[in-house]
Amino acid sequence: MSLKALHIVFVTASVVLAAVVAFWGFSNYMTPEGTRTDLTYGIASVASGLALLVYGRYFLKKLKKISYL
């Protein structure tokens, strides 16, 4: 597995994980027991997911001439 393929796998998994944590944080915040910490987790996860998407796009542009194998 090449570095390019490995990055695609891990960046995709990380974006999915960030989306799940964001959903978890926001859904916990909406409950009556929700705290600011839950909201912070949700916002930080959304920001992390967006940063990972930007990084993934940058990485793919940088290595567009290298194969996936």
SSE layout and pairing:
Blueprint: H1 3-29, H2 36-62
Helix pairs in contact: 1-2
What does the average pLDDT come to?
94
Cα end-to-end separation: 6 Å
Enumerate the spans where pLDDT stays under 50 for 5 or more consecutive residues. Answer: none
Strand content: under 5%
Helix tally? 2
Structural class: mainly alpha
Residue share in helices?
A: over 70%
Order of helices and strands: HH
- The tally of strands reads 0
Largest sheet: none
Shape: elongated
Compute the CA-based radius of gyration: 16 Å
Total tally of structural domains: 1
Summarize this, please?
The chain has 69 residues and is mostly helical. It is 78% helix and 0% strand.
Describe this structure in words.
Helix 1 (3-29) packs antiparallel against helix 2. This protein is mostly helical and 69 residues long. The N and C termini lie close together (6 Å). It has one domain. The chain is built from 2 helices and no strands.
Properties at a glance:
69 residues
